[in-house]
Amino acid sequence: MPLPRFTRLPANEQRRILDVAQRIFAEDGVETASYNQIIAAAGISKSSAYNYFDGREDLLYTALDDVAARLAEVLGTWREVADDAEFWSQLKTIEQRLRAHIETHPADLALIDPAFLLREQGAFMSWIADFVANGIAIGIITVETDRNLLVAATAAVLRAVDGWGAAEMKAGRTPDPDQAWILLRNLWGTPPVRPNRTGPTARVAGDHRRLGHRD
C-alpha cells in the first residue's frame, strides 16, 4: 500500500508517477527495474519518494495493483452462456476489449502476468474458473482431468500467451491472435475448429490437420 502522502497527491499527479513506474517496470522487468531510475524519470526527489512509498517493493505492488484493477474492469464478469457460438463470441469480445486497452496502455501487456500472479491471482483464477466451468457444461471443453488442474493449466496458457505477445510487440512484430485459440482448443480437447479473424468459430476446410488431428 502506498503511504498516505501519496494518496493525498492530486489524482493526475498520482497517475503520472504510476504511469512512469509502469512503463519502466514493463520495459526493464519487475525484477530488474531500478527504483532510482523510476524516481528520476518521474521527476521526484528520493526524500519525496520515501514519503510516498515504503521502498521499491511498495512502489512495484502499487503499480501492479493499478494494472490489475484496470484489467479486471476490462475482463468484467464472465456471463454464463448456453451454446458454443455465444461462448466464443464472448471470448472474442473480451479479446477485442483487451486489444483496445493494450493499444492505449501498452505497458499493461508486459505487466499482466506479474499483476495477476503476484497480486490478484485469486480474482484472475476465479474468472478463469467461471468460463472453464461454462465451457465444460456446454461441451466445448471435453478433456477429462481434475477441474482445478484444468483451470491452472488454462491460466498458464493465457499467461504464456501474454508474455509471448509482449515479446513479439517489443521486437516490432504483431502477435498472431490465433495462437492462443489453437493452444486452448488442444488443451481443452475442443473439436477441430480453428478460430480466425472473422470469428473464433469459423471452420476452415482441412485445417484440423494443423491442430494435429487426422481425417
Keywords, separated by commas or semicolons:
0% strand, 215 residues, mainly alpha, elongated, single chain, Arc Repressor Mutant, subunit A, 67% helix
What does this entry look like structurally?
- The protein is 67% helix and 0% strand.
- With 215 residues, the protein is an all-alpha fold.
- It has two domains: 4-64, Homeodomain-like (Arc Repressor Mutant, subunit A), CATH 1.10.10.60; 76-209.
- The longest helix is centred in the C-terminal third of the chain and has 24 residues, at 147-170.
- The model is unreliable at 194-215 (pLDDT under 50).
What's this model, at a glance?
This protein is an all-alpha fold and 215 residues long. It has helices at 4-7, 11-28, 35-42, 46-52, 56-75, 84-104, 107-119, 121-137, 147-170, 178-188. The protein is elongated.
